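Open question from group meeting: does this chain pack into something compact, or does most of it stay loose? Before anyone orders reagents, we agreed to write out a predicted structure and look at it together. Recording both the input and the output here so the notebook holds the full record.
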Amino acid sequence: MLTIKENLKEVMTGGKPDRFVKQYEFLQMIMSVPSGRVKPQIGEEVINEWGVTIRWPEGQIAAFPVHDAEHILLKDVTEWKEYVKAPSMERSEGAWDQAIADANAVDRDNKYVAAFIAPGVFEMTHYLMGMENALMSFYEEPEAMQELIDYLTEFELDYAKALVENLHPDAILHHDDWGSQLSTFLSPAMFEEFFLESYKKIYGFYKANGVELIVHHSDSFAATLVPNMIEMGVDIWQGVMNTNNIPEMIKQYGDKITFMGGIHSGIIDHPDWSQEQIAAEVKRTCEENGKIYFIPSSCQGLPGSSFPGVYEATDVEVDKMTKQLF
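Structure tokens returned:
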């Protein structure tokens, strides 16, 4: 029987895996990194490290920035230098000790030590100024938007430097949602113009500094951006929704990038979930997408689920499909 890492490599290279990769089983997330992120708990509102107000209302499954007139940080992108100040990367002595200890405890022969990065560069533009303002500014103020993106990219590179110096990760799980379920937020041409070079720098830095696996999370439609993902250096697109034609993408791009997802979290991850529902969704996903260049997984951006038990129940069904199809 192949190890978890060996089996993943067989999937990614179009070889002979002996089972389905089970969601995030190959990544050991090190969540004790001193990221400096300020996050609310349920029912709280905080001002984060960039000065953005983040609120997590009761009854919602996640927190999100607040962009009404009273709270928005950046109203006009041409004034970004006045309002956008990158947080310091200085950390107190010993701040990295727990994360380093957690990384050292991982069996690296079997799992990838992975760092988590969020929000991504595109997400930061709308965290700072709201989605509508951000999207309009790509058209109305492209020069200022490019300056802001370059500034955010430099911060990401500073953070990447701290990660590789202290943690020496084998993998990163990097968030940046680039679309809705049905379309990308930017046209492929505009996305390439504003974000391709940024991510080539960021992912290129990680690859040049010992990071073997770039896992990019975008739980969305993004089929039209796959050529850009490949050029950036993405190894696994995590969060690929079934609103993308996954079998077609595997056929066209599988030898260059692996697709992880296909199990629609909206269908399985809700308060009234059932094992039968999850079984049907996992069965469809595994049968449609095959054994190579594909990892069956919920589209969640971390190992876990919004409602207790769903992630573990999904693992059980992936194991059942392994028994049926391998």
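Observations to bring back to the group:
The chain has one domain: 4-39+76-325.
The chain has a mean pLDDT of 98.
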